[in-house]
Amino acid sequence: MPELIMDYFRPGSLPHMWCPGCGTGIVLQSFLRTVQRMGLSRDEVVVVGGIGCSARAVSYIDFNTVHTTHGRALAFATGIKLARPDLLVFVLMGDGDASAIGGNHLIHAARRNMDLNVLVINNSVYGMTGGQCSPLTPAGSKTATSPYGSMERQLNLTGLAEAAGATFVARSTAYHSRLTSDLIEQGIANKGFSFIEVISQCPTGFGRKNKMADPAAMLQWQKQSALPAEKFIDLPPGDAKGKFPIGVLYKNQAPDFMEMYLGMSSRAGCDNDNRGKGNE
Ligand code: SF4
């Protein structure tokens, strides 16, 4: 990590605000390793963040970054991609940001198959604001707003992304950091909406209330509960309890929004050759 910090962090951006043992830094490391491995130039990469602990990463890293409003990162990212389709646009969101206030943006960006790379760091709560219940809080878990255990069922966000039209859907965990890097690379290769959920640990906001304040114990839980998707699918229903699949969950090919847009605008007689050139 030190060399990644030297290469990709803005000078003076440290110290960061993450709690000791938080998984966000591990996921950020996976992202930066992919950028490094693929030799992507910082000028061709845009990272858009919403609001939350995970979105704070955009303040630290030295790419074209935009720190946006709560739940709206995908709307900003869509605008950026439409104006500059040549740029690689990543979106970093937390689970509350992506699935609650930002849920509608997620559905429609996936439906349009916008060529965006979305990374949702799922730590099961709104960590930054004190550990409130999010749509991805597992049922029965204690949070600041569910002290006797959440009575709501957990939203299946990867299932929602797939149903809405995403063409690449995957899951990893903070523990499986190499897999996260590989999935990010596969997501970049997909021309369309790529959605990756990374299950991460929030020892402060979630772990403490659920007797898992030790980050190592949370990583151990990720290791033991995650199964490669191809093995998970063959499990008898009783054995799947408490487990979840990781790896590529869904892949499909479909025209991305920009391809459809350019086709439509050329049928309408527009000049597409100068698109994205701004005021040069
Ligand atoms: Fe990480 Fe949770 Fe602390 Fe936020 S509150 S920085 S998610 S450990």
UniProtKB/TrEMBL annotation:
Keyword Hydrolase found: no
Coiled-coil spans in chain: none
Domain Thiamine pyrophosphate enzyme TPP-binding residue range list: 51-198
Species for this entry: Desulfocucumis palustris
Full protein name: 2-oxoglutarate oxidoreductase, beta subunit
SUPFAM superfamilies membership: Thiamin diphosphate-binding fold (THDP-binding)
Keywords: Oxidoreductase
Annotated GO biological process: cellular respiration
